Amino acid sequence: MERIRGMNPPLLLYSASTWLAYSIAERFYGVHYAWCTAFYDGMTAPRYVNIPPTSSPAEIYRDLEEETRRGDLHSDAIRRNVAGILDGAAAKLGAGAITDAQHREIEEIVAGAKIPDFRPVLYVIPFDRLEGKVPEVPVPLRAHPLSLEYVVEDLRSGCFDLLEIRR
Prior knowledge:
Helix content is 34%, strand content 19%. The chain has helices spanning 19-29, 57-69, 76-94, 100-112, and strands at residues 12-18, 31-37, 120-126, 149-156, 161-163.
């Protein structure tokens, strides 16, 4: 990670996802894909950083929590998560990381999932365990040009804590 003037490398990275995505990655791949930021809540980030709602783990978590709690059958967040899980499974199949049978099983699991299976989870990732393996997201792919976003493509279980915040 290139150092930004006046800013040390982050202590932690945060990422929000769904329990279903976490469970499938844990069971079938042994690694997780996490789009992260160094700020849990974009509203509390320094003024020179802009973490929009679509990249703010706190806002993603709150939105998923609300949509799953209320049983939203038209949830865009859940639709995007389904697409992401299926795209990830296809990529793993193409890379030879899973078999055809496992790919079909993942598709069946997703097809049979209920709204509560999409409840949010929060990845809390100590940066020092990943240093050197955490590319910053290129500016054109960020939710905002001044956002600080990172991608961890091979996040192993022992390198993060998983939290479910119950309200």
